[in-house]
Amino acid sequence: MSTTTTPFPEGFLWGGATAANQIEGAYREGGKGLSVQDVMPRGIVAPRTAEPTPDNLKLEGIDFYHRYADDIALFAEMGFGVYRFSIAWSRIFPNGDDTEPNEEGLAFYDRVLDELEKHGIEPLVTISHYETPLNLAEKYDGWTSRELISFYERYARTLFERYGSRVKYWLTFNEINSLLHAPFMSGGINTPKDELTDAQLYQAMHHELVASARATRIAREVAPDAQVGCMVLSMPIYPLTPAPADAVAVMDADHANLVYGDVHTRGRYPGYFLRTLREKGIELDITDQDREDLLNTVDFVSFSYYMSIAETADPAKKTAGKGNIMGGVPNPTLEASEWGWQIDPVGLRLVLNQFWDRWQKPLFIVENGLGAKDRLVEVDGVKTVVDDYRIAYLNDHLVQVGEALEDGVTVLGYTSWGCIDIVSASTAQLSKRYGFIYVDRNDDGSGSLERYRKKSFDWYAEVIRTNGATLTR
C-alpha cells in the first residue's frame, strides 16, 4: 500500500544522471579531442583500439550534443530538481595539456546550463567522469604521472571561473575508487593492467587525491558558494559465513574501498592504508605540499550504488560475481539482474548509514538504477516500454533511502543513473538500458534516435511530485 507521509525532507533533490562519453556523441565536433573512451569500443573488459572504430557506440552516443534542449525538456516534464552530467575534459582541453581552453567546448556547456536554468533544474557537474584525454594517457601514462595534477588543476580552475556562479554542486572524479580495478578507463593509465605494479597504481591514486583536494581549494577561492563533493563506488560487503576469518576478509575489502572517502573527508591517509603500504614495501612520493593540499576536505560525499557483494577468506569459495569489477563473491541469498549484478535494496540503507556514521558529511546518491533489455511496444496507440521491473527496483531502493532518512542520515538528493537510455560504460551496449526514456538505437548502431516515454517516466514524475509519498512498502 502507498504511504501517506514521506520521510524525504523539503528541498530533497530528485533527478537523474548521465556522463558525457555515454550520451553526447559528436566525438570530434566543436574542437573536441579524443578521450580514452573513444578507443574503448567494447566496454571495460576488452582491450583498447589504436583509433576510434565504427563499432564504438559512444562516438555517437544518443546525440545529446545536438538534442540536449529536447532531452532537458523531458527531464523537466518529469519534475527534475537536479541533473547530474559530466563535462568532457577533452572538449575543453582537447589534448589535456593545452595551455588555453577550447572556447567552442565551453560554449556548449553554457548552452546546456541555459536550458537547465530555463527549466529550474539544478546542475550537478562531474569534472572528470572516466574521460581522461587520450593524449594524457599516451604521452604521460595517465595518472601515474604527477604532471597530470597541474593539468587537472588548470582544467578545474577553468570550469570554476566559467561556471562557478551557475553551478552549486561539483564532483571531482567519478567513482575514484575504481582506479585499481579499471586503470585505463578510470585513470587513463596506458600501461596494460597486468604489467602495472602496486606501487604505480597507488601512486596514481595519490595523484588523483591530491588533484581532487586542489580542485576543492580552488573552488573555495573562485566560487565560494559552491559545494564540492567526492564520488565513490559504494559496495556493502557481507561475510559469506559467520567465520571470524570471513569477517576479517570483509574488513580488509572494506578498507580497500573506503580509503578514498577517508582521505577526502579527513585529509590524511588512515593507519590501515599505511600498513598496506608497509607490507607491500611501497613508499609513495608524497610532498609536504601534497599533505597540505589533502587537508582541503570535501563538503559532501556522493556515491553510486548498484549491488552488494559477499567476501570470504576461503580460496576454494572465491568465485567472482558476474559483471563485478570490484571483486567479491556472489551472495547466495540474493537474486541478480540480467547482467549478473545482485539486487539488494537493503544494502543501500546499510551503506548510507555506514558512510554517515563514518564521515559525518551530507550524502548524495548520484547513481542507482537497473540495466535491463527493454522492449518497445504500443499501448493504446502510443509507443512505450512497460518496465514494471524497473519501477519495482527503484521503488524498493527508494524505500530504503527513506529508512536511512528515518535513521537520521543526511541525504541531499537522488539522481537515478541513465535517466535516459545511454551507452553502457561496462559493456558499451545500448541494449543495457537504465532510462525512463527509451532511445531508438541498437547495439549495431541502427535506429532513429527517437525518444519515447517508458511507463517508469510517469511513475518517477509522480514520486517527485509527491516527494516520495507514492512509494510503496
From TrEMBL:
Coiled-coil stretches are: none
The record's EC number reads 3.2.1.86
Q: Which Pfam families match?
A: Glyco_hydro_1 (PF00232)
Q: Which GO terms describe its biological process?
A: carbohydrate catabolic process
The protein in question is named: 6-phospho-beta-glucosidase
What InterPro entries does UniProt report for this protein, alphabetically?
Answer: GH, GH_1_N_CS, Glyco_hydro_1, Glyco_hydro_1_AS
The family annotation for this protein states:
Belongs to the glycosyl hydrolase 1 family.
Name the residues annotated as catalytic in the UniProt entry: 367 (nucleophile)
PANTHER family (alphabetical)? 6-PHOSPHO-BETA-GLUCOSIDASE ASCB-RELATED (PTHR10353:SF122), GLYCOSYL HYDROLASE (PTHR10353)
**Top-level EC class as recorded in UniProt:** hydrolase
Which Gene Ontology terms cover its molecular function?
6-phospho-beta-glucosidase activity
Q: Which UniProt keywords apply?
A: Glycosidase, Hydrolase
Q: Which Gene3D superfamilies match?
A: Glycosidases
Q: Which GO terms describe its cellular component?
A: cytosol
